[in-house]
Hints:
The protein is mainly α. Helix content is 65%, strand content 4%. The chain has two domains: 3-80, Winged helix-like DNA-binding domain superfamily/Winged helix DNA-binding domain (Arc Repressor Mutant, subunit A, Orthogonal Bundle), CATH 1.10.10; 85-232, GntR ligand-binding domain-like (Four Helix Bundle (Hemerythrin (Met), subunit A)), CATH 1.20.120.530. 29% of the residues are buried.
Amino acid sequence: MRVVDKIPPLRLDRHRQSAPQVFDALRALIIALDLPPGTVLVRGELAEHFGLSQTPIRDALMRLAEEGLVDIFPQHATIVSRIDIASALEVHFLRRSIELEILRTLCDCPQAELLALVSKLRSHLRVQQACLDPLDFAALAEADQAFHRDMYTAAGVANLWSLVCQRSGQIDRLRRLNLPAQGKAQAIVRDHERILEALAARDKDAAESALRDHLSGTLSFVKEIRKLHPEWIKD
């Protein structure tokens, strides 16, 4: 089976540039590990698959390289990169720092704004709970992202969410590897419940504790992940 046979057809929005759409599609597949580390991406095959010239494919691959998700070897190949633990640790530090400040900000926001946010977060939490039985990893990951994104937006720093997402490719792949672990999905939902309860009560200390536990979960399993998938982890 060719690599492109694993890539769903892309219905292009003709009102948008092609390269960002190809980038989004390939990035999602890499994060989900449908295109695992070591996968060789051939520009010509991708161009034929998407019905595009090689220029937007090249531009999309260059953006993926900027995020560290592929390694480009000129005149040779483009390969999905191995997971860089050092990069994941840096992004974890960045995200934790930002979100701790976001929670402190949200605990001090006007009552009407806090109530509106709590209502949104509860809706995301209900979706997450529904994803547990039967387990739907993709939908759970999407609802997890939405939960955090809405906190950034409510705190008035939506652009920081975009920044964090751009830097999170390595740790997002680690999370995807860790998600099937026994009890991991349930732990994510419990962590969100704790964050939400603390936020609704304006309890900054409890919110900070819950967030620290939540964001540290995946990194605490790095050794196990390395043992299970040594070929996917950068030394």
